Automatic annotation (TrEMBL), chain A:
Annotated GO CC locations: cytoplasm; nucleus
Source domain of life: Eukaryota
UniProt-recorded name of the protein: Cryptochrome-2 isoform X1
Keyword Lyase: no
Swiss-Prot/TrEMBL GO biological process terms: circadian regulation of gene expression; entrainment of circadian clock by photoperiod; negative regulation of DNA-templated transcription
Record's keyword annotation contains Repeat: no
Residue ranges, compositional bias (Low complexity): 515-536
Species annotation: Carassius auratus (Goldfish)
Cofactor(s) annotated in UniProt: FAD
Site label Electron transfer via tryptophanyl radical, positions: 320, 374, 397
InterPro entries, sorted: Crypto/Photolyase_FAD-like_sf, Crypto/Photolyase_N_sf, Cryptochr/Photolyase_FAD-bd, Cryptochrome/DNA_photolyase_1, DNA_photolyase_N, Rossmann-like_a/b/a_fold
UniProtKB/TrEMBL annotation, chain B:
Biased composition (Polar residues): 1-10
PANTHER family: ES1 PROTEIN HOMOLOG, MITOCHONDRIAL, F-BOX AND LEUCINE RICH REPEAT PROTEIN 3
Record pathway: Protein modification; protein ubiquitination
PROSITE patterns, alphabetized: FBOX
UniProt-listed InterPro entries: F-box-like_dom_sf (IPR036047), F-box_dom (IPR001810), LRR_dom_sf (IPR032675)
Name listed for the protein in its UniProt record: F-box/LRR-repeat protein 3
One Pfam family in the UniProt entry: F-box-like
Organism expressing this protein natively: Carassius auratus
Signal sequence extent: none
Recorded superkingdom: Eukaryota
One annotated GO biological process: rhythmic process
Gene Ontology CC entries for this record: mitochondrion; nucleus
Length: 593, 444
């Protein structure tokens, strides 16, 4: 029987270590490599121009590599559910292959496509390569729930067999066996679109730092390994001012888009370590960065609300403030704290910031200073950050805002001192906020404290040329630590975990223990009963007699009056989804990249 | 109760209850309709039938109701007259937490206005333990004050005004806030606990508090209340001899206050929390005499002194020069090596220490000294600091197993010739007698 294959690229934009693509080639008569893109939704999706550029460059690179193998990339315009029936017929497709997507949105989309393929008599082959391990396997090993601490996760990984060895890249011979008919008008119909075609205005700013594509990824990998070999030190690298700038050996965006296989990275590190150390086997810490990614993928794979506070069983419910104005200042780098503003500027311009910088701005937005929901910050990162994966992004934000994963909240990064520790001379700030470049080192992290004469000499008056700090950090961190304590003291299973919550306070003998029903009903409504989801304290012991002080579960949002019914439904799983939830529905047209 | 009879309505509601509480709650209420049916059932042949729920004795019903969230009680109250009466029993309304949130400023839902009205109308005389959780909007703080000023015929024992996001009570006109608060002070007469952090409470209103509640007041939390003066708080300490817990800002702390709290008439103080916050850089802070602290310790030998510092490094001049009986120390901003050195010398009662940030020089000697001299230290947290691995191991060795909480960011520990990062957790775990790891942040 004739096999006509389509390989559907989504992530995994590479020819090396691509088992699903290998499967497409296996005994096939024809193979077409497809990427599906909806230009109509490109502009409206919450994805910034840098991420689109990276994607398009990666697609260009794929196309170039495929040309060398006498094939081409087919960029098909539309939505997968509309596109595939058409392609199945037009190309007489019998086999569809793609990389496994472990994220809830992807799983739902893929399930629909697999079902559709079945209806058309098309066999499907799916291979897991975006992560080192199968997230489901880790969950299974952890008694069927995702590990919620990194240590626990590492312990599981230690017991797992090693990741599968990577496969070689697609060869000329392999491809030659599978003809791909290329029509005359291929470029018109299936060419990689330009940014302009997607509705982005480009000002010829070709000086972007991160160039997308597999070719670039592999070059960077070599440089990365060369440098590691040169340093011959596998310890955690010491963070210097230089670490804050984009590095030619940085790999995270390439792992995100799958331009680089994480298994290739893993085994290259492994071999290098063995060569230089000649020890039995490398420690887990060698793969630190890769494992963090796996950790969050595992935590998110079965949790469609992983990117929300409400309805997310692992997320602590925190009464964040709604403050669009403050959020905009943060997102646009107008906080008046040069360290924060420089980071947000670098993020917007280049699409990547160092993990320390991520900690700094995330802490500032959430629990440290502005007390704004991590979800808002996550959305800004989703737009701007090249390596923002849904799971990793949401997971990191929950981590950094102390919303999950059992974090200590006593320590808030100082928007002045933290940067100064890393880069005392302020070069990083001078680069991204040129207005401040003439400030002396002493004041560059806190220009508002500079005497007027210094401000004048630097040609930058605070309050005129550069904003005043939007918040008093000492005051806000004092307040926020209290807020965090309020939240955490209500979570019985956290009691004793956080240093400050252990400061005792007298229990009024008459004061009934506070029940947390209010929290449950007003925010985590209807959550599953996993330990972290339930902010309930254990049911308090019943009072000895009706006359003794009652414990009273109090202040539910509704009560005995007409209208209670309608309100009851709100926030319940049975209620209608909020508008924001629609985006996770596979049928809803959207463009995820 | 017949299970078949009400199976039509039960599942959905049961499921909700279950999914929220995890396991079967002590009791779940029935849907209105099926319970009504049951009420109408003849009760003559109750020999084989399950008991008639409508005839449950009040005290049992009350007991059950105490386990139900308000919402479920509300549903139950629609079942029959008896249950409706039970719903309104005063015992169920002693404690209430008003959640005042605006859709524009909070993600959380609010207590329904109709419910608030009903409480004020029917239950305000039952309320005893009341708190208000208020979001960042002025409207919410205003709403809290409106409710407060209507609580004229109630006698509260505890009152908490809690800003969950920003100190929104501070944005209210002071007179409005004060008049609402004094309504409670005047009417309560038996307040024992008052939490009014971040509010515009002032000296005259504290006088009203004292005039009406001096015999009962045990707990007063008023951190960051800028309109209170040292004299205002002194008046409270002078008159309220039962005060056991007090939280305030450093600028209200005086030798006189400590002496008042350690007078013979005064009960033992249990907790004193002081926030030391600088409003503007270079602020000058007064000092407290060692003799005043000594008097305090003599009077209340077991009291906890909790101090939160949010100062610039150069503002620590007056602190830790003499011995101070502090038990819990939290440095929210950068604190110098030198000050930490003084902490080691002058804080013999220290139990818990948190250092959020320090300079770039390792804190080796300082930590060793703290381990040496702070014999009660059992919890420590380090953020943006540096300590060499050897010094850290030495510190842990000296403190040993009394270190029940040890929260150290991974970056704090600087590998040296003796220990690498992989080795240190073994070494520390050994001395602690339990598995220990440094805290980490995602490197992604």
């Amino acid at each position: 029987m004739v096999v006509n294959s389509v390989h559907w690229f989504r992530k995994g934009l590479r020819l090396h270590d691509n088992p699903a693509l290998q499967e497409a080639l296996n005994g096939a008569e024809t193979v077409r490599c497809v990427y599906i893109l909806d230009p109509w939704f490109a502009g409206s999706a919450n994805v910034g121009v840098n991420r689109w550029r990276f994607l398009l460059e990666s697609l260009e690179d794929l196309d170039t590599s495929l040309r060398k193998l006498n094939s081409r990339l087919f960029v098909v315009r539309g939505q997968p559910t509309d596109v595939f029936p058409r392609l199945f017929k037009e190309w007489n497709v019998t086999r569809l292959t793609f990389e496994y997507d472990s994220e809830p949105y992807g799983k739902e989309r893929d399930a629909a496509i697999i079902k559709m393929a079945q209806e058309y008599g098309v066999e499907t082959a799916v291979r897991n390569t975006h992560t080192l391990y199968n997230p489901d396997r880790i969950i299974e090993m952890n008694n069927h729930s995702p590990p919620l601490t990194f240590k626990r996760f590492q312990a599981i990984v230690n017991r797992l067999e090693l990741p599968r060895k990577p496969l070689p890249t697609i060869s000329q011979e392999q491809m030659a066996r599978c003809q791909t008919k290329i029509s005359e008008n291929h470029d018109e119909r299936y060419g990689v679109p330009s940014l302009e075609e997607l509705g982005f205005k480009t000002h010829g700013d070709s000086s972007h730092v991160w160039k997308g594509g597999e070719t670039e990824a592999l070059e960077r990998l070599n440089k990365h390994l060369d440098r590691k070999a040169w340093v011959a030190n596998f310890e955690r690298p010491r963070i210097t001012a230089q670490s804050l700038f984009a590095s030619p050996t940085g790999l995270s965006p390439y792992l995100r888009f799958g331009c680089l296989s994480c298994r290739v990275f893993y085994y290259n590190l492994w071999e290098l370590y063995m060569k230089l150390r000649r020890s039995s086997s490398p420690p887990l810490s060698l793969f630190g960065q890769l494992l963090w990614r796996e950790f969050f993928y595992t935590a998110g794979t079965n949790n469609p609300n992983f990117d929300h506070m409400e309805g997310n069983p692992i997320c602590v419910q925190i009464p964040w403030d709604h403050n669009p104005e403050a959020l905009a200042k943060w997102a646009e780098g107008r906080t008046g704290f040069p360290w924060i503003d420089a980071i947000m500027t670098q993020l917007r311009q280049e699409g990547w910031i160092h993990h320390l910088a991520r900690h700094a701005v995330a802490c500032f937005l959430t629990r440290g200073d502005l007390w704004i929901s991590w979800e808002s910050g996550m959305k800004v990162f989703e737009e701007l950050l090249l390596d923002a994966d849904w799971s990793v992004n949401a997971g990191s934000w929950m981590w950094l805002s102390c919303s999950a994963f059992f974090q200590q909240f006593f320590h808030c990064y100082c928007p002045v001192g933290f940067g100064r520790r890393t880069d005392p001379s302020g070069d990083y700030i001078r680069r991204y906020i040129p207005k401040l470049k003439d400030y002396p080192n002493r004041y560059i992290y806190e220009p508002w404290n500079a005497p007027e004469s210094v401000q004048k000499a630097a040609n930058c008056i605070v309050g005129v040329d550069y904003p005043k700090p939007m918040i008093n950090h000492a005051e806000s961190s004092r307040l926020n630590i209290e807020r965090m304590k309020q939240v955490y003291q209500q979570l019985s299973h956290y009691r004793g975990l956080s240093l400050l919550a252990s400061v005792p306070t007298i229990q009024e003998e008459a004061e009934p223990p506070m029940s947390d029903d209010s929290q449950a009903s007003s925010s985590t409504a209807g959550q599953a009963s996993t330990p972290t989801s339930s902010p309930h304290q254990p049911t308090p012991a019943p009072s000895t007699s009706p006359n003794s002080e009652p414990f009273t579960p109090n202040s539910s949002p509704t009560a005995a009056f007409p209208g209670a019914h309608s309100q009851r439904k709100r926030g319940r799983p049975s209620g209608p989804p909020k508008p924001t939830e629609f985006k996770s529905q596979a049928h809803q047209p959207s463009q995820r990249i | 109760m017949s299970n078949t009879q009400n199976s039509s309505l039960r599942p959905s509601r049961m499921k909700r209850r279950l999914s929220r509480d995890g396991e079967d709650s002590p009791s779940s209420c029935e849907g209105p309709t099926d319970s009504c049916k049951r009420v109408r059932q003849p009760t003559v042949d109750s020999g084989d039938l399950p008991p008639d729920w409508a005839c449950l004795p009040q005290e049992i019903l009350l007991h059950i109701f105490q386990f139900l969230p308000l919402l479920d009680r509300a549903f139950a109250s629609q079942v029959c007259r008896g249950w409706n009466e039970a719903f309104h029993m005063p015992e169920l309304w002693r404690c209430f937490e008003f959640e005042l949130n605006q859709p524009a400023s909070s993600y959380l839902k609010a207590t329904h206005p109709d419910l608030i009205k009903q409480i004020i109308k029917r239950h305000s005389n039952h309320l005893q333990y009341v708190s208000f959780k208020v979001d960042s909007s002025t409207e919410s703080a205003e709403a809290a004050c409106d409710i407060l000023s209507q609580l004229v015929n109630c006698s509260l024992k505890t009152l908490g005004l809690i800003s969950t996001a920003r100190p929104s009570f501070m944005e209210l006109p002071k007179s409005h806030f004060i008049s609402a608060l004094t309504v409670v002070f005047v009417n309560s007469k038996s307040l024992s606990s008052l939490k009014i952090d971040d509010t515009p409470v002032d000296d005259p209103s504290l006088k009203v508090l004292v005039a009406n509640n001096s015999d009962t007041l045990k707990l007063l939390k008023m951190s960051s209340c800028p309109h209170v003066s040292p004299a205002g708080i002194l008046c409270v300490a002078d008159q309220c001899h039962g005060l056991r817990e007090l939280a305030l800002n450093y600028h209200l702390l005086s030798d006189e206050l400590l002496l008042a709290l350690s007078s013979e008439k005064h009960v033992h103080l249990e907790h004193l929390r002081i926030d030391v916050v600088s409003e503007n850089p270079g602020q000058q802070f007064h000092t407290i005499k060692k003799s005043s602290w000594d008097a305090m310790v003599r009077h209340s030998p077991k009291f906890n002194l909790v101090m939160y510092f949010f100062l610039y490094e150069d503002e620590f001049g007056p602190f830790f020069r003499d011995e101070i009986p502090v038990t819990h120390l939290y440095f929210g901003r950068s604190v110098s090596k030198e000050v930490l050195g003084r902490v080691g010398m002058n804080c013999p009662r220290l139990v818990e220490l948190v250092v959020c940030a320090n300079g770039l020089r390792p804190l080796d000697e300082e930590l060793i000294r703290i381990a040496e001299r702070c014999q009660h230290l059992s919890a420590i947290g380090l953020g943006e600091c540096e300590v060499s691995c050897s010094a850290f191991v030495e510190f842990v060795k000296m403190c040993g197993r009394r270190l029940s909480q040890l929260s150290i960011m991974e970056e704090v520990l600087i590998p040296d010739h003796k220990y690498s990062l992989d080795e240190i957790h073994w070494e520390v775990s050994k001395h602690l007698g339990r598995v220990w790891f440094p805290d980490m942040m995602p490197t992604w």
